[in-house]
Specification:
Rossmann fold; alpha/beta; 9 strands; four-stranded mixed beta sheet
């Protein structure tokens, strides 16, 4: 039997008998279920936006909020802030700008992949050269061109609703 607890105390605890297949499918539903001491904990999905441009942060946040309102959003202004945020909180997805002061987006993505291999990571850039796309693919991260749109994000977010 698995019990589901929500961080919101107004939602009652639910217990269900689940098969392993059903438990695996839950990872892709509206909520993420984390196994902790045999109990699944329900958490809303969260996305980390890392971009040094305030305008790009606001546009990406607005696009996500309109298209995927159940997602929580955390914003960081550079790679160091993003890595610090990832140490403090679990993220389902990271959308990382390539051109930032200090470490670039691919350098940050490499560090995130080591510490958080379960996190889906996509590079977000205005650089539309195939060379940049190949660098992202070779690093095992997604690639999205700016400006961000619902259509560009839909493919990534669809992975979580299957």
């Amino acid at each position: 039997m698995s019990c589901f607890h929500n961080k919101n105390p107004s939602i009652e605890k639910k217990c269900y008998k689940l098969t392993l297949s059903e438990k695996n499918q839950l990872r892709y539903s509206k909520w993420i279920f984390i196994l902790a001491n045999g109990v699944f904990l329900m958490e809303p999905k969260t996305v980390l936006i890392v971009d040094d441009s305030r305008l790009a942060q606001m546009m990406t946040q607005k696009t996500i909020k309109l298209a995927f309102p159940s997602w929580e959003i955390v914003i960081a202004s550079n790679g160091e802030e993003g890595l610090l945020a990832a140490e403090k909180q679990r993220f389902s997805l990271a959308l990382i700008d390539y051109n930032m002061p200090g470490m670039n987006g691919l350098e940050m993505a490499e560090q995130l992949k080591i510490k958080h291999p379960e996190m889906l990571i996509s590079l977000v850039t205005a650089n539309i050269q195939e060379k940049m796309r190949h660098k992202a693919e070779a690093s095992g991260v997604g690639f999205i061109t700016k400006p961000i749109s619902k259509e560009k994000l839909s493919d990534i977010f669809a992975r979580f609703s299957r």
